[in-house]
Amino acid sequence: MPRPLSPHLTGGNQLDLSAYAPAHFLWEQRGAVGLVTLNRPERKNPLTFESYAELRDLFGDLVCAREVKVIVLRGAGESFCSGGDVHEIIGPLTEMSMPDLLTFTRMTGDLVKAMRACPQPIIAAIDGVCAGAGAILAMASDLRVATERAKVSFLFTRVGLAGADMGACAILPRLIGHGRASELLYTGRALGGEEGLRWGFHSRLSSPEALLDEALSLARDLASGPTFAHAMTKKMLHQEWSMGVDEAIESEAQAQAICMMTQDFHRAYHAFVAKRRPAFEGD
Fold first, then answer.
1. Is a pLDDT exceeding 90 seen at residue 17?
2. CATH superfamily, domain at 8-223
């Protein structure tokens, strides 16, 4: 196996991911779209200590990767992610001290923080099993395209843990409502594709055969838009969770004034006047 190549900064502190070769998942850059594939299909793509950390680092670094406009996150084969690997994570956790356990749980939370903080919209393409930490990765994404056979399960109480994992008690109620989130987090039952669409967890449904194409098509549509404005939208959606209405309105006034200074805003105006579609460049 070739030695993984680390991302490196180019002129202007931009991150070049063209030669990035992670050790614990697959990375492919398709134009302005970055494709992350969890690649252990024989085990339904479980996470390990190493893959948690490497994903955290990638999403943290994406703030400097201006050529990457949108991320698609998927699992290889017929499942998205089965959560933490039973043998490589769950077993070792039972032998750890409290300080080591806290280091681990903070590290997994840092992955979600990095996903929410990176400016690129993240689209999860969900098929089959999406359980435990896999459900968290889907939840932490900005949009979710799923199949009817997708099964999203927050399994933590099934193994004697709290449903409060990696931000689930903060984020999930905001996606589907407090009552529905409570049911999923207490019972650990699976949320199916159609039900997930009705509840607002999934953005849209696709056939398994068309799932990746559907997610990539959505990603390309977003990537062709005003990416600075998309990043601002993502930031405000996250930031306003803890704001009152008056504070949120003022924050949005400031955010919109910043966007009005971009070239993309001017391009959109001139394109409208000329009765043509704007060509956004993200500046």
1. no
2. 2-enoyl-CoA Hydratase; Chain A, domain 1 (3.90.226.10)
